[in-house]
């Protein structure tokens, strides 16, 4: 059996590590690393879980993942279907915030950038209106080497520090103290939920997967996600429902309801509006009007 690591080591050959990859899919397990990660999803789609944050990601999205923040870019099911070969294209930039703060960012002129780097614990999503400028600088980083690469990287950090309306990801620091063993257990829980969300999953069933009693599981899950098991599962289902609506490949909203694991259309509509702030029909209309 392949060993699943929760803490992934990143090469320390330089101040920043740049990886441009084209793969069948993202690494499919919850994990963390001590470096901050800047992630440009050039091509790909799925669900991003970062701490207690969960939302669909699409091509063009750019995220900043905090140091030691557990996360997973979980691609859609179609990426794992051998009959439908697809690939993701990503650019990842890793840096150690402590090392950077003690060296380059220790200069007086770097005070604002240093303040920004110290505040990325919970991660951010770059707003759509800032993407083009950020993508241009990341492209410079890819093509430059040595000192020119570092200079372009500082330019990128400055761009982040002056960008308005950065969207925070997680809302709590509590999950960052998670141990290696607990991280692997949380990955096991998450993998089970995203694999089986289309059917009813009882509390007893998921508790057994976690090797906990139902009462202990509820406390454990709430502690590590700031969400109840039911609310987390509903978010997985609604994210999938949003994907289906955007694809346009459905006959009715009731079909989507049952495809995503809900038992009743009324409950589906209620949870959808609570999660997205819109009814399924309003959500569909909003994207048609874009």
UniProtKB/TrEMBL annotation:
Keywords carried by this UniProt record: DNA-binding, Transcription, Transcription regulation
Coiled coil spans: none
Boundaries of every HTH araC/xylS-type domain copy: 187-286
Entries under Pfam families matching the protein: HTH_18
Organism whose genome encodes this protein: Dyadobacter fermentans
UniProt cross-references to InterPro entries, sorted A to Z: Homeodomain-like_sf, HTH_AraC, HTH_AraC-typ_CS, RmlC-like_jellyroll, RmlC_Cupin_sf
Protein name: AraC-like DNA-binding protein
Source organism superkingdom: Bacteria
PROSITE patterns: HTH_ARAC_FAMILY_1 (PS00041), HTH_ARAC_FAMILY_2 (PS01124)
């Amino acid at each position: 059996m392949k060993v699943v690591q929760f803490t992934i080591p990143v090469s320390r050959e330089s101040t920043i590590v740049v990886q441009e990859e084209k793969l069948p899919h993202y690494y499919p397990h919850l994990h963390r690393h001590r470096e901050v990660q800047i992630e440009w999803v050039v091509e790909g789609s799925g669900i991003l879980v970062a701490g207690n944050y969960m939302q669909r990601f699409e091509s063009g999205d750019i995220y900043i993942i905090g140091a030691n923040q557990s996360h997973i870019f979980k691609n859609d099911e179609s990426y794992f279907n051998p009959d439908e070969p697809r690939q993701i294209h990503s650019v990842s930039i890793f840096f150690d915030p402590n090392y950077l703060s003690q060296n380059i960012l220790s200069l007086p002129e770097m005070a604002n950038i240093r303040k920004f780097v110290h505040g990325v614990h919970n991660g951010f999503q770059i707003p759509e209106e800032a993407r083009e400028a950020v993508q241009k600088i990341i492209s410079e980083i890819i093509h430059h080497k040595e000192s020119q690469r570092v200079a372009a990287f500082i330019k990128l950090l400055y761009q982040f520090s002056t960008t308005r309306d950065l969207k925070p990801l997680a809302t709590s620091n509590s999950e960052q103290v998670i141990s290696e063993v607990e991280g692997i257990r949380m990955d096991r829980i998450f993998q089970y939920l995203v694999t089986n969300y289309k059917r009813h999953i009882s509390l007893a069933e998921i508790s057994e997967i976690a090797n906990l009693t139902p009462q202990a599981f509820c406390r454990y899950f709430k502690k590590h996600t700031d969400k109840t098991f039911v609310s987390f599962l509903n978010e997985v289902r609604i994210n999938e429902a949003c994907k289906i609506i955007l694809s346009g490949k459905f006959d009715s909203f009731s079909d989507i309801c049952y495809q995503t694991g809900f038992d009743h259309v009324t409950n589906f509509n209620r949870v959808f509006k609570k999660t997205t702030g819109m009814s399924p029909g309003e959500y569909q209309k909003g994207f048609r009007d874009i």
